[in-house]
């Protein structure tokens, strides 16, 4: 059992790790890449870093600090997060158990501008297989996505639904889907239905009947992971209080997945608060 698992290796996650490690708690940071800051070619507004430091260099320096303190850095993608007194984190390579988790997954990506997707949300378009699979017992569902996260959603749906189709939407299929999942490689033109989803229109003119479409584009962000735990989401952000605590004991969130102000300084600050709050939580468990 890990003390603390941090999902996200950007400024928020790495900053949190500095505090949890210096507080004496074994900490694992899981990140599929360097996050938003590593894509910034020049950062001019970060305190104490004059000139235009390369964002990637800042993130690399943060990773080195975490490694020097004995933190474990895993380059993996988290596909599921479950909670039952403690946390179970599933990645593309392993399953971890942790007493406390900090979500620092950055801003959730925009959804695709596919006609019908927004309009039929909650009426056949779902963002959470664990939450909604039950409603599709014996029905035909489609999963929009093509990577490990889409595979996870398809695996949740397979035992329940009559048929699961993967809509790769022109993307490379990067996970090993079981043969029961039919893969439709071409682009999606729209989700069909008036009151409820009835099918999917493909760009080549074909139509696929479907009772539900599960969105699993890219990887699961903090919002998707929080939603699966039944946590409230507001304006596409994870809801956390001033201590960066969510409504689940031991689960904290920081940075762009929480804050409407998407800045490295805010992410670092919130990461520090989340790290300190996680330490306080763990010390409470020890009493
Ligand atoms: C091009 C660009 C330029 C910018 N310029 C500036 C600037 O000049 N000044 C400034 O202050 N801010 C700037 N920003 C904003 C700044 O980068 C962000 O506010 C900051 O990086 C947020 O930190 P974060 O840790 O919350 O998220 P991120 O840095 O986005 O990190 C998110 C982390 O979560 C990981 N992750 C997400 N989902 C999963 C998953 N399922 N499994 C495993 N890992 C996962 C990612 O791999 C990543 O490691 C810029 C952003 C961009 C894109």
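Q: What amino acid sequence fits the structure above?
A:
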């Amino acid at each position: 059992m890990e003390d603390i698992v941090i999902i996200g290796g950007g400024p928020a996650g790495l900053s949190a790790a500095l505090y949890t490690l210096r507080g004496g708690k074994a900490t694992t940071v899981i990140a599929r890449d360097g996050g938003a800051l590593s894509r910034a070619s020049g950062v001019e507004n970060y305190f104490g870093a004059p000139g235009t430091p390369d964002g990637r260099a800042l993130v690399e320096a943060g990773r080195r600090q975490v490694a020097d303190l004995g933190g474990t850095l895993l380059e993996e993608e988290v596909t599921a997060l479950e909670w039952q007194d403690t946390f179970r984190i599933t990645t593309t390579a392993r399953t971890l158990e942790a007493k406390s988790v900090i979500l620092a997954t950055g801003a959730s990506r925009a959804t695709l501008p596919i006609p019908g997707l927004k309009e039929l949300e909650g009426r056949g378009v779902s963002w959470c297989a664990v939450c909604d699979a039950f409603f599709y017992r014996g029905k035909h569902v489609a999963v929009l996505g093509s990577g490990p996260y889409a595979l996870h959603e398809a695996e949740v749906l397979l035992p329940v639904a009559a048929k699961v189709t993967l809509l790769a939407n022109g993307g490379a299929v990067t996970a090993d889907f079981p043969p029961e999942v039919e893969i439709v490689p071409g682009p999606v033109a729209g989700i069909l239905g008036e009151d409820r989803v009835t099918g999917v229109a493909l760009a080549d003119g074909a139509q696929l009947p479907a009772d539900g479409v599960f969105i699993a584009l890219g990887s699961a962000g903090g919002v998707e992971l929080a939603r699966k735990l039944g946590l409230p989401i507001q304006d596409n952000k994870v809801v956390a209080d001033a201590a960066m605590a969510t409504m689940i004991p031991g689960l904290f969130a920081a940075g762009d997945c929480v804050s409407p102000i998407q800045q490295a300084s805010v992410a670092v600050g919130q990461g520090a608060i989340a790290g300190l709050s996680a330490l306080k939580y763990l010390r409470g468990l020890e009493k």
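Q: And what stands out in the fold?
A: The chain has six helices and 17 strands.
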